[in-house]
Structures are given as structure tokens and as C-alpha cells.
Amino acid sequence: MPLVRKPSSPTETPASDGRTVSEQLISGSDDERWAAARSTYLLQDALPLLTAALSKEPVARVREAIFTALAKIGSAESAAVTIPYLRSDDAAQRTLALDALRAMPEASAQLLPGLLKDVDADVRLLACEIARALPANDASRLLAELIGSEQNANVCAAAIEVLAETGDAESLPILDRCAARFPEEPFLAFAIQIARDRIGSR
Amino acid sequence: MSDYSKKRILVVDDAALVRTYYRSALEAHGFAVEEALNGLEGLEKVLLQPFDLVIVDVNMPQMDGVTFLHTLRAKELPISGIPALVTSTEAGIQDMAAARRAGANFYLVKPIKQETLAEYAAILCGAAR
Amino acid sequence: MDDTPQITEDEFRRLADFLYRRTGMVFTETKRYYVERRISERIVATSSQSFAGYFAYLRSEIRNEVEHLINAFTVNETYFYREDHQLACLSSDLLKERISGKRPGDTIRIWSVPCSTGEEPYSIAIWLLENWKDVDAYDIEIVGSDIDTRVIEAAVEGTFGKRALMKLSSELIERYFHELDNERWQILDDLRQSVRFSRVNLIETKETRPQGRFDVIFCRNVLIYFDDESRRVAAENLYDNLLPGGFICLGHTESMSRISPLFEVCRYSGAIVYRRPKELRA
């Protein structure tokens, strides 16, 4: 029977060449930097190492691994490292940063109130998605507060998208006021109606 | 299930309310609509079914719209040639340039009115008026 | 008398949106009754007072209710030749790609993780022996791994009941199993010994790394249950365990779009398969 064979011993991982993880993080090959990024979170000074690496790293999957390492650390400080990348002009960077924050919900929750007040409308918009991971009451409260004063229609829309899932009876008057504030925005009227229906069904 | 006599549009946006809004506008104008929640799911759908147009947002989890477009255009014909209408929030002027470089055929700034969407969708997929 | 509590259309849509976002599974209006039945079971099982209470519980990710809910919608039974369209894809497309860079006698490594009680890795072995014309030309190593040592032990023993064999023809059963006394069949020794089993936690890099790199990985119906962080780590581990250009197949209701951007999306034989990018150098 052709499949019968002595199973090989599992492939040995390549022997270390003596460079430290932190050295490989900066100066290794793509594969070496990727592997180094994945094990850096164990180091004492992981955070400054990862922060520095992220600022220079050109290869997408190494950046992804650095963001995963930040998520594994999962502290308010590691979440803070990802925040500047939410402002990036590069959509792929924004996606990496947002996905990393989603993977560390407790840490993100601490930063969320600040993000929802950020001067950059796109950051506020992305922050609404992070609110989705919070318990429904907390999410609804924060988003209602945002909607109450938000001038940007797209940010309101992002908040309403999440409120349709998390909102309760207290959210309804805020939605009504938002509809009144944006009479020229048919998408918002549409979204608010759906959110009202979903919330009202409780 | 699928109606191949109609023009087929794939709507790629991570907001369920946006997809629903576009779907209601496009279906009212006679298009068949499929949905995807991010660029990766969008790629899966275009690989499995034919489409006359993709409407794709920029900010999405896992794979953003610009990356989706780059990847789409790097595939083989006919998939690589699907017309693409990119949508984004107004602040993202950089997004417009990036979308054009990635191979977008047109760009609309959100929020988008239903009539506008249907009009450009019809033009981009060559639907008879 | 049907006691199924009615959920409203809006409640149904709220749940459907949540599940679609989380898993990619689509529930249209036609599936409404089917969904209601299963939601009712979960509402009772979690002692929730109402759909609203249940939905809040679901969102909170306490005790992995999402996993229980997903399980309610998927067939979890393992049996031989389950999702055999993927096995067909393996022999007709994936291996053809993999051998283009290999010479006869080279090794092909295939990983089944989680392997549960062994139906999947043994199915791969039997399928290739039956359906792949080049099966004799290469050195095929099949590895089955699972986090649960009890199922590993059962897989090593290789004994199965009628239900597990239900998709196999009597010829196949006769060819690859011998019947024990009590309506159970055991995989022939030769085949049993040609599959290697190991205990592995997909989230632990120090456990996945030593398994080495594979040409094809079957990782069905496990990733979608992990939380966001674990999913990323598991996906990176699986990437690490693939040779450049190697393939990974998920369960038919699963998608990398809910898991990780690391893999390329490909279509073979009408199915979606994911691939670690080939190296760029010539």
C-alpha cells in the first residue's frame, strides 16, 4: 500500500543564528522579521520594539504580525500604539489598526471615549465600530452621546449602524433628534428608520 | 435564485444598513444584487459568480476597498475587467487618488443618494436606459 | 401544538445581521422558521427570558454562546468522506499544483487539524489511494492533530461505527477496514500506521511550529469559533505551517473573510480554497 511509510520526524525549525529577536525584527529577511514580530510580545521591552518596528516595516504581513503582537499584549499602551495608524492615508493601514483594536476589546474600551471625540471625522467613524464590541448598554450610551453633537453625517451613520444592534428605548429620542438635524440626508433617514424598527421591537 | 437576465451588481460594504439602502435602490431599478462585507468576501464572490459591476467601499475590515481593487485587477480576464465604483467618506480625498491608481472606474462620496447610485450603476454596467 | 415563541421580523434581521457579520452565514426570510426553532432552543438552554435577553447574552461572548449558536446551524457530525467535494478538489486540482515543483519520490505533506476521531485524515488517505493517479509516485505523509487527547487516542485506534462509514461503499469498507464483532470496523493496520497523530492547540505557536510545513491543510469548522485575537494567532500559525504556494481548506460555511487577510483567495472546481502566496524570487 503506497501510503505506508515510516512517518518522518517533524521538520526541525531552522537553528537560530545567534541574533536576538529584537535584531531580527529590524534586520532579518521577510520571514525572519515575521517570525520575530510573532515572538516579540514575550520580551520585557516589547512595546518600544514593536512601536519602532511598525514605523519602518514595509511588508504587509509583517505589519499584520506586529499588530497581532500588540493585540496579544492587549494593554491600553499597546492599543495607544495603534491609534496613529487609524489616521493613515493608506486604507490598508487603517484596516490593520482597526482590526488590531477589535482584537483587544478591553484595552480599546479604555481609549474609546477619547476616540469618539477625535478631531478627525474618519477616526470618530472608525471608533463607532470599536464600540460594537462593548456591552450593549455602554455602546449605546457612548454612541448616543456622540450622535447628540455630531455634525458629520457619515459619522452619525456609522454610529446608527451599531445602535441598530445595541440600542434600547433610551436611544430613540436621540435618533429622532438626529433625523431632524439632517433633513437633507435621505440615507440617514433610511438608517434611522431601520434602527428605530429594530430597537422598537424589544 | 439568481436572475441572469438582469445586470448583476456586487455591493461590498461592511455596514449592513448601507448595503440594504443600496440594494433597495438598485433592485428598484431592475438590477440583481449580491452583497459582501469586506474585500476578501468580495473577491470570493467575484470568483464564484459573474458580475457586471462592483460597488466597493474603502474602509472595511480584513481587506479594504483599495486592496480589493488591486487584487481584482491583478486577476485574469474577465474578472479583472469588472467595472468598479468606489465609495468613500468625504474626508478621504487621498482615497480618491488611491482608488484611481488601483483601477476604479468611478468614485462617489458618501452619503450617496439612491438616484445617484442607480444612475451611475446603470452607466457603468452599460445597462440600457 | 408548536410552542416555538415567535420572533419578530426585526429581531430575526438583527440576529441574521449579527451572524452574517460574525460568520458569513446568510439567513434569508425563507429560513425564518428554521432559525426560530434553533433560537428557541438556545433561549431555553440559556434560561433567557426573551429574545432581547438572549441577544444581549449572545453579544457578550460569555461562555462562548456564539459557538453554541453556530453549532445549532451546522452539522457537526464527523464521518468518512464528509464534504468530499474538497477531497475531489484535492486530487483533481490542488495536488497537481503542488507537484509541479516536485520530482517523483518527493514528499507531499497533508495536515488535518482538528482531526477529531480520525475520519478526516483516514478519508484523505483512502480518497487518494482510490482517486489520485499519482498516489504511488510521491511519498505522502498525512498528519492528524487535535487539542483533545481522547479523540486522538480514538483516532489512533481507528475503530468506527456504521454511521461514520455511511458514505462509503461496501467495496471501500471491505478494502480498507476489517469488521470487528460488534458492528464496528477498524481501519487496516497498514493504513492506520501510515497516518501520524499528534496533540496540538492551534493557538499555541510552540505546538504548531514543530509539525513542520505542509502542502495542504484541512482546517474545517474550528477557526470560526475563536475570538478575534485567537483567530488571528491561529491563522498566523497555519500560515507558518504552509509551504509557500500551499493550500488551506476551511469548512464549507466558513470564510477567511471573517478570519485573516494573510491568504490569497483562489477558486478550484467551483470551490473557494486559500493559498499561502508563493515566494516572489524566481
Write the layout of secondary structure elements.
The complex is a heterotrimer of chains A (202), B (129) and C (282).
Chain A: H1 21-27, H2 30-40, H3 46-56, H4 60-73, H5 76-86, H6 91-102, H7 105-115, H8 121-131, H9 136-149, H10 153-166, H11 171-181, H12 186-200
Helix pairs in contact in A: 1-2, 2-4, 3-4, 4-5, 4-6, 5-6, 5-7, 7-8, 8-10, 9-10, 9-11, 10-12, 11-12
Chain B: E1 8-12, H1 16-28, E2 32-36, H2 39-48, E3 53-57, H3 65-73, E4 84-89, H4 93-102, E5 106-110, H5 114-124
Parallel strand pairs in B: 1-2, 1-3, 3-4, 4-5
Chain C: H1 9-23, H2 32-45, H3 51-59, H4 65-73, H5 84-99, E1 107-112, H6 119-131, E2 139-146, H7 149-157, E3 159-161, H8 170-176, E4 177-179, E5 184-187, H9 189-194, E6 195-199, H10 205-208, E7 214-218, H11 228-240, E8 242-249, E9 264-268, E10 271-275
Parallel strand pairs in C: 1-2, 1-7, 2-6, 7-8
Antiparallel strand pairs in C: 3-5, 4-5, 8-10, 9-10
Summarize this structure as a short list of keywords or feature phrases.
heterotrimer; A: 202 residues; mainly alpha; 70% helix; elongated; C: 282 residues; alpha/beta; Chemotaxis Receptor Methyltransferase Cher, domain 1; Rossmann fold; 3-stranded antiparallel beta sheet
Brief characterization of the structure:
The complex is a heterotrimer of chains A (202), B (129) and C (282). Chain A is mainly alpha-helical.
Descriptive notes:
- The complex is a heterotrimer of chains A (202), B (129) and C (282).
- Chain A is mainly alpha-helical and 202 residues long.
- Chain A is built from 12 helices and no strands.
- The longest helix of chain A has 15 residues, at 186-200.
- Chain B has one domain (8-124): Response regulator (Rossmann fold, 3-Layer(aba) Sandwich).
- The mean pLDDT of chain B is 92.
- Chain C folds into 2 domains: 9-73, Chemotaxis Receptor Methyltransferase Cher, domain 1; 84-159 and 190-275, Vaccinia Virus protein VP39 (Rossmann fold, 3-Layer(aba) Sandwich), CATH 3.40.50.150.
- Chain C has 11 helices and 10 strands.
- In chain C, the strands form 2 sheets. A 7-stranded mixed sheet of chain C has the order 6-2-1-7-8-10-9, with helices on both faces.
- In chain C, helix 2 (32-45) runs antiparallel to helix 4 (65-73).
- Classes of the chains: A mainly alpha (202), B alpha/beta (129), C alpha/beta (282).
- Chains in contact: A-B, A-C, B-C.
- Chain B binds chain C through residues 14, 16, 36-38, 40-41, 43-44, 47-48, 62-63, and chain C through 17, 20-21, 24, 255-261, 265-267, 270, 272.
